[in-house]
User: What shape does this take?
Amino acid sequence: MSASYPPLSRKITNVVMLALTGFCTLLVLSVLLTILGYLLWKGASSLNIAFFTKIPAPVGQSGGGVENAIVGTLKLLALASAIGVPIGLLGGIYLSEFAGGWSAFTIRYTTDLLNGVPSVVMGIFVYTLVVLPMHHFSTLAGGVALGIMMIPIALRSTEDFLRAVPRSLREGGLALGASKSETIFTIVIPAAIYGIITGIMLDIARVAGETAPLLFTAFGNLYNSPGWLQPTSSLPVVIYNYAISPYDVWHKQAWAAGFVLLSGLLVISIISRLILARGKKLSHG
Amino acid sequence: MSNAVLATPEVPFESRGLDKKQTWWERLRKGDEVVHLITLAGGWSILVITGLLVQHLWVYSRLSRHAFGWHFLVDSTWDPVNGVFGAWPFVYGTVVTSLLALTIAIPIGLGSAIFLAELAPRKLSNALTFLIELLAAVPSVIYGLIGIFLLIPVLFNVVPYVQKYFGWIPIFNGTFYGVSYFSASIVLAIMVVPFIISISREVLISVPVSQREAMMALGATKWDVTWRAVVPYARQGIMGSIFLSLARALGETMAVTMVIGNVAQVSTSLMAPGYTIAAVIANEFTEATGDLYLHALIELGLVLFVVTMIFNALARLLMLTMKGHEVVG
Amino acid sequence: MKPFDLSQLSRAHEVRFAADESTDEKLPWPQFTVAALNFFYGTHQALKGINLIVPNKRVMAFIGPSGCGKTTLLRTFNRMNETIPGTRVEGSIRLGDKDLFSFPATRLRRVVGMVFQKPSPFPKSIFDNVAYGLRLDPSIRRREIADKVEQSLRRAALWDEVKDKLHQSANGISGGQQQRLCIARALAVEPEVLLLDEPCSALDPISTAKIEDLLFEIKNSCTIVIVTHNMLQAARVADYVGFFLNGELIELNRAKQIFQNPEMQQTQDYITGRFG
Assistant: This one.
């Protein structure tokens, strides 16, 4: 083999193509940084105290805030968790500890499919399920929509983390006279708890930004929404409505709301990763 | 030897509690059946919800299905006032924006995945992948916000130059209003790129070393090895990631609604405003007056559901059949 | 209770195990009496017609090459095999004079404790590990638990090493300590039998020696059945040794006898290393 192998043309292709892949990565990263940077700049400059403490001001007036939307989002997420987390946990336990054969396969596959249902379709579903019978939009309907959307991820991540618990721990429990269910609740779940919590927090962060299913379930509200059966405002819907409005004051509010929403999500995501790291550290001494 | 006498136990077994009758409380506490049943209910509720979802979409779209049949998909008149509903402009817009988005996203995504899997040191690669996956966590509505206030102003500066030189090509001509198929496609491309990168990277990383070494032994360059050995070996997983991204692009709602213009027309030019299925549902659902109108919108949801399910199922199938490699996401 | 008679066993003549005929020593009463035991993983038969007696408060070791069925038999004594789907057991095992399979498995496992090959402390504190079995029984009072934990740790010769860090994670101690913790955990519920499945195979020689010392202490109050790969270990700790090959019990005899003058050719081959 001569020293000039591979031929020059192939060497050039090599360098050019490898450089191109690097360029692609750079491009994606710069888009990411631009988005985050722009949001940070626009959002932070539009923030003030009133944003958190006041409800929206009438059109044309400056000032006002989105306190009702922040409260609305928190209420929606609480309700969604109350629905999605228990079902996801139970289903995850079932898949990892009890189900076998076709039953496990069917549930797993259906869960993955449900996870892929476009959020706007989920909105339609909950509209026909909750809003039509009740004849009006409500926090309840929005919470149900987000709750159903939470189930697939809560279920699959719970299953994955439970599965990762070694068989030796389960046998250790059984050998001490614990029943299967006692082993699950006192050994397997505690051993996987950090992972499960992380999965659920990321799941909450994911649905917190959902907008489409809320448009026709929670709808929106210019004022505070008492109780659970009235339409409610929420951060994502506020961002949408303000962004497509013609008023500059509202655009500023949209940026501020986007900034608050994304910061919230990033904080949740970072905290949950810390929890996972702490769990790993604990279980390895 | 068979008659050897053995001593009796000093402690009779009764005293060990082994023979004691089980109380109902012990039965319940130790009982696995109850836990089994409760968790089973949790698992099966997934099937119930999915069943209900399909049933509701089917039942609540019946008026429209009966009135228009399959013509619903190909008629291009969407006239709520006169009760005529044809979904072609939305179907067209959905297909065009999704395909264009993938055309942009696939090379960039695959290129980045190759860089992150094959070239970058593992530590750097992990850190960058973490950042890129953050991109996937940004809510759709925020992409819309960025699209309206950052992307479209930029496009206003760029598109005139494109039209000056390429305006004779039908897909580039016409007046540019900012909102357009093109803007929507770019936003969609940015949204699906993280999916393609993170799944493809994992698939590429899992390609066995033997595949690379075989090529390297033949004197191949790094690029040759990657392009002719690694990528073909991983193509199933890469296809899977593309189908998953396609399903996501088809069903994406908010970001598209905010930048596509929401005009129910079919245009050859990518610079013209249009509409997608998801966008029309988001815009008109709460304003739908009359049952036929509502049912027509729900039928659009049904169409969207069926199409995204097909691509999701395909993607899952592709990834399932990849030996020993499972991607959850 | 009637005294046991080996003739109660079906095919008792196959039990190659008896009192030394030269002495008047009475055999200890049998902890386990196994008769015509077959065990299947799906269609694979892992145990073939096993008959044997495990004497009370003695150490019995099972030796043999991997896959010979010794661990399977051990796991049948506390019915751990039942947790593996697709397994089937035929024949009879008696615990004392009662059918082993007539008890609820969860209760049986408190009487027949087990320690596994790989140390498997729960990801909890050292104290909680030992207290785990005690807390499963609501009749044991809170105050008793602390005492029993200390007592068990002392029996497992671990107390002095961990008494200052009882509430730290059990994953933080060494492998040998973890295995002794697992023994303490099993001893805490005061089992009558302790099953050990190659308890030292993952440990260094010093930790192994500690555990072997421990077994001598425990055997005053516990019947011990130990599965081991290590013939020297069997020779050191066991009173009786059973040699298994391909799912069959080839020979069961006093340890001294089996290592010095085995009856069967296969046993001779194995202990002289001709099986590898």
In short: Chain A has a mean pLDDT of 91.
